[in-house]
Amino acid sequence: MKATLHVLLLSVVSMMVTGDVHLSERGTGPGCLVGTRLAFDLNTTLEETKRLNNEFFDCPNPEPGVPCFFYSHVFKPFFIIEGTVEGESDRFLDSYTFKVVGGGRTRGSVRNYSHEEILNFNSLSDSESSRQTLVWTYDDAPDSFRLTKEGFLLMSNASNRVRWLCQRNSPCGDLTPVNLLDPDFFFIIEVSNRETASSPFCEHTLRFELHAHGFPLDPVRGLFFMQMTMTVIQTILICYIGHTCWRLRQKTVNTKKQDGLDEQDGNQFKAGDVLVKVGSMLHSCFLQLYCIIFRIVQNPMLDHVIMLVVLFDTSTLIAQTFQGVTVRTGWCLSAVDSCLLVFYVVEAVFKILVRGRTYFRKPWNVLDFFIVFMSLLEFTLSLVQSAGGFSSRQASTLFRVLKTLKGARVFRALRLLKAIRFFKGLQAILLTCLQSFRSMSSIIVLMFLFLFIFTVIFREMFNESDPEHFGNIFRTIFTLFQILTLDDWSLIYMTSRDNGAPHIIYFLSLYIVVELFTFLNLFIAVLADNFQLSIRKKRQCKSQKSPDVKEGETQSGVKAVEDLEMCQVEIEEEFHKEALRFASSDSKQSKRKIELISRHLQLLAAMDQHMQKYRSQACLLDNLVETFFT
What percentage of the chain carries pLDDT values higher than 90? Predict the structure, then answer.
C-alpha cells in the first residue's frame, strides 16, 4: 500500500513539473518498462540552441510554462525517457516523426489541426510541399533521407536540426506585428515513434507547446510597402505636372484671345486632324515632363531630401545592431527599409533620364548606382525565394541558399557612403587617400618584400624555441604583423629567451627598425604630404578668385538657364502652333494670314527668350561685381 502511494505521489509531482510544457502519453507495447514516458528535455535543448546559434533571444512577452525560441535560429530538440516510479531518465535515441499538429497567434487561440492540414504543413512529399504550406524544414539532413508513407521526415539525435520555414500559405506565413513588436506564434508539436520500424515493441507519443517569436517581414508584403511608397511619389509628381500643364494651358488660351481668334471656330475641326493634334499633345506632354524632371534634378531640395533619407536609413541600420531592437522591432525596420529603397531608385532613375551617359562619368554616381543595384538584387532574390514553390529536396536546401544570400545584406551598409557626396570635406579626404595609393604602391611592395624575407629568417631560426609563434610560415607571418603593431613583442622575446634563443632580440630590433620606423613612417609621410598638397591647392583656389574663374561659373549657370528656357520656348511654340491650327481649321482665313500670325508668335517667343536671358545675365553680373568688390 505504501509503495502504491509512493508511486502515485511521484507521478503527480512529475506531472506538476512538466504539465505546463508538454502533454505526454505513457509508452505502449510489450517492450515498454512500467511507468516510463517520453518527455521534452528543455534544459539540454536551450543549451544546444545557444551553442549552435552563438546567441539566444528570449521572448519580449514570454508565456509562463511555454519554452520560447527565436524564429531565425536553429531549433534542435532533445527528448528523454522519463521514469515516473524511480525518477530516473535516459536519453531517447530512437527515430521519430516531428509534426506541427496545432497552433495560433495567441495562446488562447491555439487550435488542433485536421489530418489534411497536418499533411499540408509537415509532409515533405512533392505534392504537399509545392503548395507553399510548409511550416518547417530540416537543416542538416543528408541527401538521402527517410520518409514515412505520408511524407513525414524520420528524425533522430544525429539529424534533428529544425528550421522554421513558414511559407505563405502556412498558418504562420506573412504574419503582421502587434503593438510594433515582431510577430510571434504558438505551435503544438507532436513527437512519436509509432511510424518507425526500429522500436516495434514500445511506442511513445509526446505533445508539447512551443512559442516562436521574431518572424521576419515577408518579401511580398515588403513589395507592397514599396508599391505604396511609389504610389505616393507618383501622386505628388502627377499633381505637380497637372498644375504646370494647367498654367500653360491657361497661358495658351489667353494668347489666343489676345490674337482675336474665335474659340467657337476652333472647336470645329476635321477628323483627319485628330491624330496630328493627339501627337502634338503627347509630344508637348513628354517635353514638359522632361523639363519638370530636369528642374527636380537640378533643384538643391532633392539633395536635401536624399540626405535626410540617408540619415534616417543610417539610424535604422545602427538600431538593428542592438539585439533588443532586432528582437522586438525587426519587422517594422525591414518595412521602413523597403520604403527607403524606393527613394534611392527614383533618384537614380531621374538622374539617368536627365544626364544619360554622363551620369556614369562621376565616381560618386557610379557608387550610388552600385549601392542601389545591390539593394535591389538582395530584395529580388528574397522575393524569388518566397514566391517560388519548392519540392521536398528543394526545401532541404532552401535555408542553405538563404545563408549564402545573407551576405548580400552587407551591401546595405554601403548606403552610408551616399552621405559622403553631401560633404565636400569628406570627399576631399577620400579622394586624397585614393590618390595617395598610386605613390604608395612601391612602398607597399617593399614592405611585403621585407616581410617575406624576415618570415623566412624567423621561421628557420626560431621554430624550435617558439613553435607557437614560428611553427609554420602562416604563424610566422601573423606574428610579424603583430610585432608591426608593437603588440606583445616583449613576450615573444622572453619566450624565445627562456627556451635558449636570446639572440632573437637582434632580429626583432632590426625588423622593427626596418618595417615600422622606416617603411611604415614613410607610408604615413606620403599620405601627409598629399594632404598638404590638397590643402595648398584649396587655399590657392580661394586666394585666386578672378573674373576668369567667375566667368566659367557664369557660363555654366547661363547654360543651365538656357536649357530650361529652350524647353519652355519649345513647349510654348508647340502650343501656339496647335492653337493656331485648331482655330483656323475650318475658318475663312487665308494661308498668308496664318503664316504672318505664326511668324508674329515666333518673334514674340524669341523676344521673350532674349529678355529672360538678358535678365539672368544681368543678375549674375551684378552678383559677380558685388562679390569681387566686397
Answer: 10
User: C-alpha cell of 234?
Assistant: 507618383
Amino acid at 415: R
For residue 185, what is the DSSP state? E
Grid coordinates belonging to 32: 515498454
Contact (CB, 8 A) for 164 and 136: yes
The pLDDT-based confidence of 187 (bands split at 50, 70, 90) is: very high
Contact 493, 481 (CB under 8 A): no
Which residues are CB-contacts of 230 (< 8 A; sequence separation ≥ 6)?
342, 346
* Whether 155 contacts 124, CB under 8 Å: no
Contact 139, 398 (CB under 8 A): no
* Torsion sign (Cα): 563, 569, 575, 578: negative
Q: Residue 240: what pLDDT?
A: 76
Contact assessment for residue 254 and residue 260, using Cβ atoms and an 8 Å cutoff: no
* 626 vs 620: CA distance, rounded Å: 10
Q: Where do the DSSP E strands lie in 445-500?
A: none
pLDDT in tens, 253-277: 666 555 554 444 444 444 445 566 6
Give the C-alpha separation, 310 to 315, whole Å. 9
Residue 166 neighbours by CB under 8 Å, 6+ apart: 71, 135, 136, 172, 173, 175, 185, 215
Q: How far apart are the first and last CA of the chain?
A: 112
Rounded alpha-carbon distances, angstroms, from residue 598 to 141, 381, 549 = 81, 57, 42
Cβ neighbourhood burial of 138 (10 Å; 0-12, 13-18, 19+): buried
Q: How far apart are CA 626 and CA 295, in angstroms?
A: 27
Distance of CA 436 to the CA centre of its chain: 32
Q: What is the DSSP letter of 429?
A: H
Residue 126 has pLDDT above 90, yes or no: no
Q: What is the DSSP string of 526-579?
A: HHHHHHHHHHHHHHHHHHT--HHHHHHHHHHHHHHHHHHHHHHHHHHHHHHHHH
Residue with cell 515582431: 182
Q: Which residue has the cell 545592431?
A: 321
Q: Report how far apart, in Å, the C-alpha atoms of 501 and of each of 461, 466, 492, 498, 505 are.
A: 9, 9, 11, 7, 9
Interatomic CA distance for residues 152 and 118, integer angstroms = 10
Residues for the chain: how many in total?
630
- Give Cβ neighbours of residue 356 (< 8 Å, ≥ 6 apart): none
Taking the C-alpha atoms of residue 562 and residue 572, their distance in angstroms, rounded to an integer, is 15
DSSP 8-state symbol, 205: E
pTM, entire model = 0.65
Looking at the chain, the number of H-run helices and the number of E-run strands are 20, 12
The single-letter DSSP state of residue 512 is: I
The grid coordinates listed for 361 are 562619368
Distance from C-alpha of 411 to C-alpha of 407, rounded to nearest angstrom: 8
